[in-house]
Design brief:
Largest sheet: 6 strands, parallel
Number of strands: 6
Strand order of the largest sheet: 3-2-1-4-5-6
Radius of gyration: 18 Å
Structural class: alpha/beta
Number of helices: 12
CATH architecture of the largest domain: 3-Layer(aba) Sandwich
Order of helices and strands: HHHEHHHHHEHEHEHEEH
Shape: globular
């Protein structure tokens, strides 16, 4: 499977992704309109791997466990705060989840370590395949923007850190609607910002639950499954799945 994904990435990057086009044919046939815009979750664009590495550096031997507990509680808190109408922004959620995760593992969390781990979210850079793919999509006339739980300053920092200025429109942070994904209010932001029908907007997800949420809302959905995770059992499947943004380029080209 890894060889096939690597081949797809290479073919798409060279503009000759015949196998990807064939694989996307069923989804393309199901689409009634051309894709005119793409809304990206943060992590198909920004590489989160430096965060668990930092966690291991700060807590040798415990970094993986801390990261897993932190990530789980981070997203549970977004859902609970949306359901309970007690919204705070994602950076605050991230810090609260970290504090809980460290406490649950009985790890001492000095303030300096807490600040470093939280601030690391403002230091993220793009995956290596991102800039060529976004450039190709932009040249093909696609409009693009983040649609993320991240705050706007977090997303702006990622754009600056990665040299992606001019490729993406104003970030769509859930701070605008004070509801985290998968609440429909969050997904609706792209439809309103782009001013086009949701059927013409591709949502590019990093997590399987986000792909399911966007699909249930009504977006054509591409799951950028960089970590090779299994499909969620939520009753909504993405239109296509790939290992990176070159696969998104191939899918959109085929769908067009």
């Amino acid at each position: 499977m890894m060889t096939t994904r690597r081949e797809l990435l290479t073919l798409a990057a060279e503009g000759t992704a015949a196998s990807l086009v064939a694989a996307a044919a069923p989804a393309r046939a199901a689409m009634r309109t051309r894709i005119r815009a793409i809304a990206f979750d943060a992590f198909p664009i920004l590489d989160p791997r430096p965060i668990p590495k930092l966690a291991e550096d700060l807590f040798p031997g415990n970094g993986a466990a801390l990261t897993a507990a932190w990530r789980t509680r981070q997203f549970e808190y977004t859902w609970l705060r949306t359901l309970s109408d007690t919204y705070v922004d994602f950076l605050r959620v991230t810090e609260d989840a970290l504090v809980f995760a460290a406490r649950s593992l009985k790890l001492d969390l000095p303030s300096a370590a807490r600040e470093r781990l939280v601030h690391a979210h403002l230091e993220l850079k793009a995956w290596p395949d991102v800039k060529p793919a976004l450039t190709a999509l932009r040249e093909a006339g696609l409009r693009m923007a983040f649609l993320s739980n991240f705050t706007a300053p977090m997303l702006d920092a990622g754009i600056r850190n990665s040299g992606l200025e001019g490729l993406l429109e104003t970030p769509l942070s859930t701070d605008r609607v004070r509801a985290f994904k998968p609440d429909p209010r969050a997904y609706r932001m792209a439809e309103r910002a782009f001013g086009i029908d949701r059927g013409e907007i591709l949502f590019a997800a990093f997590a399987g639950w986000d792909a399911a949420g966007a699909k249930a809302f009504g977006y054509p959905t591409f799951w950028v499954n960089r970590l090779g995770q299994p499909t969620e059992e939520l009753g909504a499947l993405p239109d296509a799945t790939g290992a990176g943004l070159a696969d998104v380029v191939g899918f959109v080209t085929a769908a067009g």
